[in-house]
Write a structure and sequence with these properties.
The structure is a homodimer. Chain A has about 400 residues and is α/β, with parallel strands linked by helices.
Chain lengths: ~400, ~400
């Protein structure tokens, strides 16, 4: 068994895994861009084409020669001949000469001879063939020029970027209908405990319903990956090893729930050590809750042991497992949070990170974060909270009225 | 046609829709709790049972009578008889008498007669039947008492709450395997424009690929709803009305892309007015980009007209459509963002909200937001940005080095 309580800081624990030479990166696959939402782009994407590929109007109005509007104003208008209405999606029929203009709409193709577009609001229709213009224009005004969106070989998307709605729009605009993305990871969840029964079963003396399988599997889905749930394992090393070996063949990653501490009943470490090399790299992280956590790599597969306590499991998944999964994708998310005023003092121990669930309330248009205290084994401390704050190891706590950053459990 | 440029502020526009007596709320349905992740809870949930339903140990150690540990310390230990090992998931066989203890593990059932648990680390095994205890304990120490998680009829979840991983855990812990949630909305997307071709087609002179259908449909998916995409509509009122009437029958909500302005080519308003009563309630919002937006209700269905410009469409979806959809669910999300230092001055006009895309960079451990300038018709201004900032109507801009809140496009 590995030495326990040789604890690492959260960052060191993550780094010890991600910097290991056996640390597995996710595979890649080609998919339709149409269905790439929330996938991680696996290759830098460069524009194959110039966009827009023709000069377009950005307004409803009239394409003109800006020279014809020189010195023009409300009190000193000019008059232009309307030689055609440029239909959307069609190439203009004529080239403008001095004193001529063409009716055009937003997105319409600028005719030869024109160098600007005067807005409808700055014109008056005189008759079928003539308009009055009442404003001067600079060259290029209200035109989106060829290549202004992107030039050939301009980089559009970085690898490691999570595909959003607008990214799909941009890729499709360039005609990129296939995309190389990181494959989703198939993560197996293995809960153990002789006291566990399925949530559909009636409560029995000394038994509790298994909730970790479902809490963890939904955290996995939220991280953009796939889940395989295995049946509850008994507190028996041989049975666990047998199930774990099967799961090891079927999944990219295994997450064990419970059995990660150091009592003789805790067999997760022993099971992991028998799945492959190098085995356990981290056993114990200087956080509360969640200290008895195991992080390992076996034959190039990530194998994790989360505490059986559902609050610890959630905090460790959010703060330790998620960053490791993101690293497999070369994905660095933006750190988002809600800034709040702490509504009461919180004490903590130096030398560890404390994760404290908080409820956010709005009072006089200010956001307050109120700690949800409770024994850390009780999942309702998470249910009654909107997010959590992290108290860094150097602090002995946080004072009432200090500013805190509240993070959500699932981003 | 409705009067345009009788613009409303974003908040007033949203309120004008959500406070209308025909404003539709989403339907509800009963689903499996196991698959309720990210759905909106539709009914307050109360605990049907006391949890835990027995006194549990929160540590690996020995269940004892705290009286037996009174005055005990490293230098003055006490000795206790170990009368049994309480197996996980089993009811203890014996009641403790003075001077007795029982081996117990985290989550194990506390035996009658015991009132606290001493941690393994604070004991020594003397022989098969006796241990030494080296620390005093208070009554109840390291015990999670019956009912400490929840009592019968305690409220677990509010209606309007978005179900997270831990919420599923808590519901299943209570044996709640079915849940009343809001039904997903089926939102039809109708893009129009004679210049549009399908993204799989080759570029042709004066034509552009339709990207709004796919940008908007992915924003809809991100909002937790379902999408029906309709084929590109021509710039022709009769054709549009015919397609819109079919879509109106098939969907809960319609979103039109393009044609929402006031030129004679813009037929969206006329189409919406012919779908039902009361029709258009808002035409024009004091924002940039996105001013020519239509919000309406027709025969109790929400009907929206977004600008054809994809940047405007994205900003309006994020800031106007999303809050309206959330209101249909009675859902109020937490406002999350990333606080950054603005890296340059931005000017804006008073009297409107400006949405400015920004790129976040990290320099000397500080986050900076750099505006991504560009014509607002170019979707790559969104692609090259990590989020956006909102400049309120009373401001003429924001100064370099001021603190800004950067929001993501999809939460």
């Amino acid at each position: 068994m590995t030495e326990f309580f040789n604890v690492l800081t959260p960052n060191d624990a993550i780094l010890k895994i991600t910097s290991n030479k056996s640390f597995p990166k996710s595979k890649t696959e080609i998919i339709d861009t149409f269905s790439a939402h929330n996938r991680i782009n696996a290759k830098n994407i460069y524009s194959p084409t110039e966009l827009p590929h023709f000069n377009r109007s950005s307004m409803d109005g009239y394409a003109i020669k800006s020279n014809d509007a020189r010195g023009v104003s409300d009190s000193s208008p000019n008059y232009l001949e309307v030689i055609e209405e440029i239909k959307m999606g069609y190439v203009p029929n004529q080239t403008l000469k001095d004193g001529q203009c063409a009716r055009i709409f937003t997105g319409g193709m600028i005719p030869n001879g024109a160098d600007s577009v005067i807005m409808e609001e700055d014109t008056e229709i005189l008759n079928e063939n003539f308009i009055e213009i009442k404003k001067s224009l600079s060259v290029g005004e209200n035109i989106i020029f060829k290549g202004e969106e992107s030039k050939v070989n301009n980089k559009i998307l970085n690898k490691g970027h999570k595909i959003r709605a607008q990214d799909i729009g941009s890729l499709l605009e360039s005609g990129i209908t296939k995309l190389l993305v990181h494959s989703k990871l198939n993560i197996g969840v293995l809960s153990s405990g002789d006291e566990l029964i399925h949530p559909k079963e009636e409560l029995q003396p000394a038994k509790i319903r298994d909730i970790n399988t479902y809490t963890i599997s939904n955290l996995i889905k939220s991280s953009g990956n796939e889940v395989t749930n295995y049946p509850i394992m008994p507190d028996n090393y041989e049975s666990q090893l047998k199930i774990a070996k099967k799961a090891f063949q079927e999944c990219d990653i295994l997450i064990f729930s419970a059995g990660s501490s150091i009592s003789y009943r805790d067999t997760t470490a022993k099971v992991i050590e028998n799945l492959g090399k190098p085995g356990i790299l981290v056993h114990g992280i200087s956080v509360k809750p969640g200290k008895p956590t195991i992080l390992g790599i076996c034959d190039k597969k990530l194998i994790l042991g989360l505490p059986g306590n559902p609050v610890s499991a959630t905090m460790i998944f959010t703060n330790i497992v998620n960053p490791i999964l993101n690293s497999m994708y070369n994905f660095t998310p933006i750190n988002t949070y809600t800034e709040c005023i702490l509504s009461e003092n919180i004490s903590s121990h130096t030398g560890r990170v404390d994760y404290v669930p908080v409820k956010i309330t709005n009072k006089d248009d200010k956001l307050y974060a109120k700690p949800v205290f409770g024994k850390s084994n009780l999942i309702n401390t998470l249910v009654f909270s909107d997010g959590y704050i992290s108290i860094p190891p150097a602090k002995r706590g946080l004072y009432k009225n200090s500013k805190v950053k509240v993070k959500k459990y699932e981003q």
